[in-house]
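Model: Ready when you are.
Researcher: Fold this.
Model:
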Amino acid sequence: MQNVEVMSEMEIEQLQEKIDAGILLAQQRLIERVKKENGELVVMRDGKVTHITADEIE
């Protein structure tokens, strides 16, 4: 039989906060890179593929 450790609600919440912070940081770095390289982002808006150029990013 395996020894399985169950995470508490607090541990799960802390882990989710770290995941959310990591995703936000990755988004910020991607935006900075697109601006620096004068590139574009491709995103989904209202179910449609949309291209956003560097100068359109706020």
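Researcher: Now this one.
Model:
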Amino acid sequence: MPNTLSETINKKLLEKLNLAFINVDSDMRVVQTSGNLAQYGYDEVAVGDDVTEHVDFLVGIDSDQALTLPVLASPAGMPVSVNLMPESGQLTVVIADAKDQFDLQQMLQQKANENQLLMEKQRKLLAQLHSAQTQLKEKNKKLEEASRLQSGFLSGVSHEFRTPLSAIIGYAELIQQDKSKEHNQGTLELKHNVEPIRRAGNHLLTLVENLLDHGRLDAGEIVINPKPVQVIALLKDVEQMMQPLARAKHIDLVFNDDIDPGHWAYIDESRLHQCLINLVGNAIKFTDSGSVVVTSYCDADILRVLIQDTGIGIAPEDLAKIRLPFWQASDTGKVGTGLGLSITERIIEVMGGSLSISSEIGVGTEVTMELSAPQTGEADEQMPVVKCEFDQKLSILLAEDDYDIAQLVVLLLEEANADVTHVENGELAVKAMRRQDFDLVLMDINMPVMNGYEAIKIVRGEGNEVPIIVMTASVIEADREQAQQLGCDGYLCKPVDVIDIVAIADQVLPRS
């Protein structure tokens, strides 16, 4: 019976991900096994067995070398992913079903391609309107329908991806941030092993953001929000995020930042962060040996970032094509959506900057980003204090249909000094608010029986003015506007941290 929070969460994660694992010593003898290898078509092994006699892909493997095999055919013909993780003279082999991931990537690629074709059709229709006024009304109807479908698609993609990613990232961070003083070797290893889960979740979230931004850019909905930013701090944050990816590939990632710590620039911090993550991530992805060097400096009101890698390089005939969405050279052997560079260049252009690329096959690639970054000297105002708990005990109603997300949020809120009542849909939320007075309500939107908007409309119609914060996976601006029109007091996009909830609660709750 698990006796710690970390063990409970680890067990739930293993059950959720349906993993199989084998732990072997330096002689490839089995030390421990999950006992469910047969479901992936492998022979069940016993403690003390030579694992190479049962699992053929381990024959000849260096037990001291970490290795990831993204897709591998099991003896039963199932696509599986395999991770080899050496630790303290032993090797842990983790096997997971890769079919859903493979199918999901194919579906995402297909839907994105269909969406791109639909938008190309829109542009052609717009060009024909000038010479075919009699067809204007009918064509406008088609464009409105296409826009509706696009918004629905983006909203659906956002919800379907962000909800499970919120659980993965949230539970992973919860394990790593466990403040318990009783840490044995098992819990330390758990915190170490959960880092790839957290990193992969954040990477998937970046891919989702790129896909959504692709639709927003075509619809002209990208909004730039500049503010005073300490440039060197942003660059250091990017370096810390990308170093684990470089170390995993055994390449050097070097940041040369010739920027004074006192240099503050007026720029959109989140968009610049997104662009740098995409560009540095691409350089690491296509570099298998050598280094990636990032050199940054500010010249007057211009920020210049040069990213040099010793990767595979790009053929001259492909330099123009790589800027196109969804395009990748077919002979790279690298998996991806082909959206990162396209999205980055278009965001940089919206921010008033430019991107140039030079490359040589077998030598490497240089990417130069220039961006307008007017100097402000220092922040216009002091940074706010980051709070992780409420100033006073709060009674909070959480309406959330996803069980994993709900359990995570309840746990975080209780640690932040709150009593939490959880319900699974809007109808139950309305009934709960009729029975009891709450200090704050966190309301999901996409729920069964009654959605969040319907519930908010009912309680506001009954005169209940309790502060309501929408907490949803949707990033569509129309959803945010609808929430404001219904009288909501705040809007948070998943994944949500307890710091975000505490901060917005401070803004909407009445002062005592």
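Researcher: Key takeaway?
Model: The radius of gyration is 25 Å.
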